[in-house]
C-alpha cells in the first residue's frame, strides 16, 4: 500500500491492520551516462511497493534526501545541509509514529547512506519513542545472493552496473539509455592507494571519477526481472519478521526504564 495513494479512512485502516511502515531511502545523483538521476529511490521504492503487496505494509512516498555530498560536483545532484537532513529524517520518523505506526522499516537504496541509516537507527535510542526502527543489514540473503550472482555475467556490482541497470530496465526501461553505456567498465583507479586502508571524503570519487563502478553492457530486462523478484522476496520475508516481532519493543522499553535511572536508586 502506497501512503500517498490511500484515502484518509483507508490509511487509518492500513495502520490498524499492519502497524508497519516502510521508508525507502535513495538520493538524486549521477548514475554514469545511461541511468536517471533518481535511480536509487526509483528502484528501492518499487521494490518496497512490490514487497508490501506480498506482505501488507504501508510504503512512505519517494524519499531522496540522503548523504550525497561527495557527488555535488556532478550536474543534477541534490543535497541538503547535514544537520537539516538529520533533523528532517528524525522528524519524519516521529510523523510516521504520530500517525500510529509502531514499526518503521528503513530500506536503503544508496550505498552512500549506509553509515547514515545505521546512525539514524541508533538515534532512536536518545529518547523514548512509541515506535521501533528496523534496518535490514543486507538486500539479499545468502542463497538469493548466490542466485543473483548466477544471473549476472559480471562480478562487480556497485554503481550503474549490470544489476542496477538490469533492474532499472525492468522497472522503467524508457528512462534507461543503453546506447549511452560507456564502452569501458568503471574500475577502481586507486588514486589514494598510497594511504593504505584509509577513508576520506573523496575516497569514492578518487576511485570512480566518472561515478560508474561495474559494467552495464550485459544488462537486460530479463535479468532485471529475475533480480527484482529476488529482492522483493527477501524484503517481503523481512517485513513479515518485523510484523511478528514482539521482542524489540520490550527490550527497548526496558532500556529506557533503566536509562532514566541507571544507578537504580
Structural overview:
The protein is an alpha/beta fold. The protein has one domain: Rossmann fold (3-Layer(aba) Sandwich). The protein has nine helices and six strands. It has helices spanning 8-18, 39-54, 82-98, 114-123, 142-151, 162-172, 203-207, 221-244, 247-259, and strands at residues 20-25, 58-59, 103-108, 132-134, 157-159, 213-214. Strand 3 (103-108), helix 4 and strand 4 form a beta-alpha-beta unit. The termini are far apart.
Helices and strands, with pairings:
Layout: H1 8-18, E1 20-25, H2 39-54, E2 58-59, H3 82-98, E3 103-108, H4 114-123, E4 132-134, H5 142-151, E5 157-159, H6 162-172, H7 203-207, E6 213-214, H8 221-244, H9 247-259
Parallel strand pairs: 1-2, 1-3, 3-4
Antiparallel strand pairs: 5-6
Helix pairs in contact: 2-6, 2-8, 5-8, 6-8
Amino acid at each position: 500500500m502506497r501512503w500517498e495513494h490511500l484515502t484518509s479512512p483507508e490509511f487509518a485502516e492500513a495502520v490498524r491492520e499492519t502497524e508497519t511502515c516502510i521508508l525507502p531511502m535513495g538520493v538524486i545523483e549521477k548514475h554514469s551516462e545511461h541511468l536517471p538521476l533518481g535511480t536509487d529511490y526509483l528502484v528501492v521504492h518499487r521494490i518496497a511497493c512490490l514487497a508490501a503487496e506480498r506482505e501488507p505494509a504501508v510504503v512512505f512516498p519517494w524519499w531522496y534526501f540522503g548523504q550525497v555530498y561527495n557527488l555535488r560536483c556532478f550536474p543534477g545532484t541534490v543535497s541538503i545541509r547535514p544537520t537539516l537532513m538529520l533533523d528532517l529524517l528524525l522528524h519524519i520518523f516521529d510523523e510516521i509514529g504520530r500517525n500510529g505506526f509502531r514499526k518503521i522499516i528503513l530500506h536503503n537504496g544508496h550505498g552512500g547512506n549506509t553509515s547514515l541509516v545505521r546512525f539514524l537507527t541508533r538515534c532512536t535510542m536518545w529518547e523514548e519513542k512509541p515506535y521501533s526502527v528496523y534496518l535490514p543489514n543486507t538486500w539479499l540473503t545468502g542463497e538469493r545472493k548466490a542466485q543473483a550472482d548466477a544471473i549476472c555475467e559480471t562480478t562487480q556490482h556497485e554503481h550503474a552496473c549490470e544489476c542496477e541497470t538490469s533492474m532499472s530496465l525492468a522497472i522503467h526501461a524508457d528512462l534507461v539509455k543503453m546506447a549511452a553505456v560507456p564502452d569501458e567498465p568503471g574500475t577502481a583507479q586507486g588514486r589514494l592507494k598510497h594511504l593504505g586502508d584509509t577513508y576520506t571524503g573523496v575516497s569514492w570519487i578518487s576511485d570512480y571519477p566518472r561515478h560508474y563502478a561495474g559494467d552495464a553492457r550485459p544488462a537486460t530486462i530479463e535479468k532485471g526481472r529475475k533480480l527484482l523478484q529476488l529482492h522483493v522476496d527477501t524484503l517481503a520475508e523481512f517485513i513479515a519478521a518485523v510484523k511478528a516481532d514482539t521482542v524489540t519493543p520490550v527490550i527497548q522499553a526496558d532500556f529506557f526504564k533503566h536509562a532514566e535511572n541507571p544507578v537504580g536508586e
